[in-house]
Design goal:
- By secondary structure, the chain is an alpha+beta fold.
- The chain has a three-stranded antiparallel sheet with strand order 1-3-2, with helices on both faces.
Length: 75
């Protein structure tokens, strides 16, 4: 949930810069409105093309890909 996102942001700021980390990506089911609301409240924005992001960074079945969205936040 939100605590995990906060932890990831902390690690990314502390250690990610040296590795070239520029953003944090989070995937969730499109109908998971509670998670989506929490991510938006924490400053994450819906990716312009969630399908492309999921294909690039995740290995998930096509049916799950179609029912999922990604959010991102700069580090």
């Amino acid at each position: 949930g939100l605590r995990l996102a906060e932890h990831l942001e902390s690690v990314a700021r502390r250690e990610g810069a040296a590795r070239g980390v520029r953003r944090i990506l989070v995937g969730t089911y499109a109908r998971n409105y509670k998670a989506r609301g929490a991510l938006e409240k924490a400053g994450y924005r819906l990716s312009a093309d969630s399908g492309a992001v999921l294909r690039e960074y995740y290995a998930i079945p096509e049916d799950r890909l179609r029912t999922s969205v990604t959010y991102e936040k700069p580090v």
